[in-house]
Amino acid sequence: MASVDELLKVAEKSANPFTEAEIDAALAHHPRIGERAAGSSTEASLSRGEQANLTLDDQTSADLLTENRAYEDRFSRVFLIRAAGRSSGEILAELRRRLANDPADELTEVGEQLRAIALLRLAAAFNAAPAR
């Protein structure tokens, strides 16, 4: 690989699209947005870091809990969104918007978010910004 940018381009292409089975496997141990990931695994540590800047007052925490449960009831998986760089209000608005998606459209959005998270993590491993 000649550069990190090339690596990120190859990674993005390779992960597009994710299959439903790949998405389910990736989300199997993923915490709800707004909840601290438990444990010492790399995944838990990365998730905690990505959500570290979220400011959650009592009302936002309660709303996220309610909307997360509604999402899980509707789509049978945790809500996944790239939290890095987003406010809790933006995340809550996206969660509410995506509740109206049909299952196929939501699966596409989950794949896009999973890809964005993976690329951010890969870029961070090389101390680089993802090309976008």
Automatic annotation (TrEMBL):
SUPFAM superfamilies named in the record: UraD-Like
Catalyzed reactions per annotation: 5-hydroxy-2-oxo-4-ureido-2,5-dihydro-1H-imidazole-5-carboxylate + H(+) = (S)-allantoin + CO2
This enzyme's EC code(s): 4.1.1.97
GO biological process: purine nucleobase metabolic process; urate catabolic process
Domain of life: Bacteria
Domain called Oxo-4-hydroxy-4-carboxy-5-ureidoimidazoline decarboxylase: residue spans: 2-123
Presence of keyword Ribonucleoprotein: no
The entry's keywords: Decarboxylase, Lyase, Purine metabolism
Bias (Polar residues) ranges: 39-59
Annotated coiled-coil segments of the chain: none
Molecular function terms from GO: 2-oxo-4-hydroxy-4-carboxy-5-ureidoimidazoline decarboxylase activity
Pathway assignment: Purine metabolism; urate degradation; (S)-allantoin from urate: step 3/3
Region (Disordered): 32-59
Entry annotated with the keyword Transmembrane: no
Pfam families attached to this UniProt entry: OHCU_decarbox (PF09349)
Top EC group: lyase
Family annotation (PANTHER family): 2-OXO-4-HYDROXY-4-CARBOXY-5-UREIDOIMIDAZOLINE DECARBOXYLASE-RELATED
Name used for this protein in its record: 2-oxo-4-hydroxy-4-carboxy-5-ureidoimidazoline decarboxylase
Organism expressing this protein natively: Solibacillus isronensis B3W22
